Amino acid sequence: MVKVQIAVPRRDQDTLLRWLQDREVLHLTELAASTGSATDQVVTPFNVELAHVQFALEFIARIRIELHEQPRRSWRNIFAGRPAVDLEALEAVLARLNVPTQVQTIREMNDRLTDLVAAKRDAADTLAQLQPWRELTLHGSEMEGTAAVRHELVCVSVAELELFRTAVAAARTSAMEEIGRVMTKKNGTVYIQTVVHRSESALLDAAFAQTQAEAVKLPLPPDRTVTEHAAALEHTVQRLETEYHQLLEAARAALAMEQDLQFAYDALLHRQERRQAGRAGKVLPFSFLVEGWLPEERREHIIAAVTEAFPSAAIETAPAKAGEDPPVLLRNSRLVTPFEAVTNIFGKPRYTEIDPTPAMSLFFLAAFSMALTDAGYGAVMMVALWAAGRFFRLKREMRKMVRLLFYAGAATVVAGALTGGWFGISLETLPAGPIRDALLTLKLIDPVSSPMSLLLVAFALGIIQLLAAWVVRGYAHARAGDWLAMVFDDGAWITMVVLVLLWQASSRGLLLSAYTQLLAYAALANAGILVATQGRSYKNPLLKLGGGALSLYGLVSFLSDTLSYSRLLALGLATGVIALVVNLLGGMVAVVPYVGWILAATVLVVGHVFNLGINALGAFIHSGRLQFVEFFPKFLEGGGVPYRPLGRVGKYVDNPAEFD
Predict the structure, then answer these.
(1) What is the pLDDT of residues 279-296, one digit of tens each?
(2) What does the UniProt entry say about where the protein is found (predicted)?
(3) 600, 629: one domain
(4) Which one of 52, 207, 237, 614 is least enclosed by Cβ atoms within 10 Å?
(5) What does pTM read for this prediction?
(6) Claim to verify: residue 322 and residue 404 sit in the same structural domain
């Protein structure tokens, strides 16, 4: 990375930020406090405008749902459904669109629709209150009784009806009439009217106190009965419903504004991003200064482009200094670039650390293929991912992942052929012929009948990868000029593990059986070197010796890390066993008369797709875990700052550069 400072006249401040935003080349850093804030000179209520446009878009989305007018989307855009539009086009739409007028029109529609919904809800609620009392023939003016007679509408549960009736009957002047009842599974409610002479009102109050009965006040005009008012309300609800749908149809015209409003929203959002980015710059009396990081290989090209676009610009560049922490941009070959998706899950390495992607790539493929271990599934993955890359619009990061999984599918084909995995089919049951002979010839290991062989392969992969981690760390130490650490902290451990492995193999007569004793002495001598050197950071001689002796515990850690690779055997066996079970189930339903072949096809397709999906996911997760837990920590601290140039983070629109 190279640090660059660009100074332009103050009148070009927004133009420069817009140019940088559109090209996404400069990772901004914050300069020292300026003589005047880059954004306090002109205060623009971007957040208010954004809120207004967002309100309009939410209204349109609601109208779409109510009108059942969902936008059409091409099948090619399943993974990238937003339109790709450059910044200039967004600004042109914003300049052409009269946002305040459009938003005001939509706000008026929304207010009217909201009022109609509220009025309709109020009328419906009143209807619901009146519904149990439809048989009541009194007018509203008669509900309060007279000077001498108290009249009450009461709702009481069926369980307490007799208790309430008895309590009311204590008043000699009382009378009670049941208007209706609503029953439920466990209980019910009875709606009644009662009258009593006001001299005995206390007895009626006592009836309410003894039960949970409630007095009801109906929202009834004085000149209408319940039936008349209910009919009027039903007419009102119908009228409001009709008016609502008419207004909804009128609001359909707003759908045509949706894309323009989306473009306007993102244009305003990008203006806000530039305003925020301007705070990292420095405003001087006559100029605006911005500072950031550029990739070294793009320095000349970007400087030339800036000079051409801003002839009056002044540009200075400088390499990264000691103590600075530049952002990290991984640079790999086209073949290795897809594996950056795995590295990014772990996090960026520090600027001074080694990019682990090239060293990790082959090990990730080997682990993934052993975890899936079915050539048929690998072939399906390759075809599906090739089709996805060929026929769908994919963003740059998505294309990386597709290519990574394509490579993983290809590796799985190789591993599956070597282990005889073809959709869970037992190769021995295939009809005799050249295809069967070729597949059996390729098959070197049978995981089902000889799982220990596959387990040894998994352990071998683990040992090689863990040794490779020391090699990478040794290279990092050498690059930093720490030759002592490279020799004693990396080289000595590599030779220690190799010697122990050779000694064990020799003692079992597997190889170099004539050198068993020599290898044992060599391993002991190597252990002595480790004891003598691994505690060298201590000043106390006893601590030096003790630290060196304790370092030999690293052999136990190495063994523990190696055992972690046994998960590959378990995952590979799971894939094969589930595939075999799916085939057995398909064979069982195939004998059903007439529809057996349909059932068998369904079972096979659904079962194998599920098996592929769940085990491919498991293979990816566990292969990644081996890199993150067993490999990367041996030489990588991580925590680097990702290279994030000033760019566009749109909500409704994508940057065309993301599809390059």
Answers:
(1) 888 888 888 999 999 998
(2) Membrane
(3) yes
(4) 614
(5) 0.80
(6) no
